[in-house]
Amino acid sequence: MGVVLGVGTLGVGLMGKLSAVMIKALRFPADKTRPVRFGDGEGLYLQLAPGDTKSWLFRYTLHGKAREMGLGVVGDAPDGVPLAKARILAGEARAKLRDGTDPIGNRQAERQAKLRAELEAAERTFKAAALALVAGKQAGWRSAKHAAQWLATLEAHAFPVIGAMPIASITTDDVLRVLRPIWETIPETASRLRQRVEAVLDSARVQGWRTGENPARWKGHLAGALPAPSRVKRVQHRPALPWQQIGAFMAVLAERDGMSALALRFVILTAARTGEVRGMRWREVDLDAKVWVVPGERMKASKTHRVPLSPAALGVLHEVLPLRRKADDLVFPSVRKNTALSDMALSEVVRRMNASDVEGAPPLWRDAEGRPIVPHGFRSTFRDWAGETRPEGREVVERALAHSIEDKAEAAYARSDLLDKRRPLMEAWGRQCDQPVEAPPNRQ
Length: 444
Description:
Layout: E1 4-5, H1 20-25, E2 36-41, E3 44-49, E4 53-62, E5 65-73, H2 83-98, H3 103-123, H4 126-137, H5 144-162, H6 172-183, H7 187-206, H8 229-232, H9 246-253, H10 259-270, H11 274-278, E6 285-286, E7 291-294, E8 305-308, H12 311-320, E9 333-334, E10 339-340, H13 343-353, H14 378-389, H15 394-400, H16 408-413, H17 419-433
């Protein structure tokens, strides 16, 4: 390869090896203007510059060309290189030369590799890891909605705090900064959030993006820093209108214009979840058979759900039927964007119905505790009405609400969706919604 190591001294001659005492005593010659070098042997040199600045050089010749490789400044400080270390570094450089490797080129390659690794680590943020996890698992999840919900929790609470952080540097303190603001106020969401943060960090470790224990692990870790979610706060049900007031509410709702008001009426008349109605398409509806078939991928339990349509529910559908152009059209589209209504759009209808010009007045439409009602609460209104007034029984009512049977043995035998028994139930509910028996409470 044509390698020749520099031998001897340049500038000022010193015989033999250098010593720590000698290096400390050396001063830049007063009669010199350019750096001088003192050889330690086998290509290692001490370079002394004006101002008594001392540094190490390794000199060698490769392919007929002389090359110099800096080994650092002289000193015992953390960034300094004492004589013993300089000799080790020079020995490593000679070993590379014997193996046919240019030590300067090798060091440059190592620095570039380290830089690339640092850049990659900077790009491997918590948010990037979360998106990668969702992309990898989405095919196995029950619906695109589940993936959206999974990410929504992180977007609302985790990404603003640790989203831009390198996944490898996230610690227990970082996880606690995410969880503590909501741990005692919305413990159910906080617990779900912790599980998802833990899953992202586990996935990153599998990919080699981080090492060590998972700082979001509950058992034996965060359990010692946070109270158990079940002990923080009693789970509160959604505020629901007393069923005796449903007729009065529906009479006021019917006077309101807009697609959101129509969708909310249909939500109430079918006791369906708001998301099921907002994503409803005409191909799911059989007007002749008076049935709405919700596909499993849009149901919470991932099972197809048939809804018998009462005359009142069919009446709402006939109001929007003129908008239908093709089978895949949304039944209740957002007219401005021709997309699905947002959940907030339905909530806004109820909020406006509760608006008052009287400052400090209680909401007009409220639950038994005085809380303003929300769209999802109408399922509880339906459940209370059915339980108190109807003969169909619990099983039929639970089927109407598309609730899963918790008892696995019972669920194995309960194959029928009891559609025929649910039809008179929903027709009676439609009539109840059309009878303003009791007016809403006074605001005072």
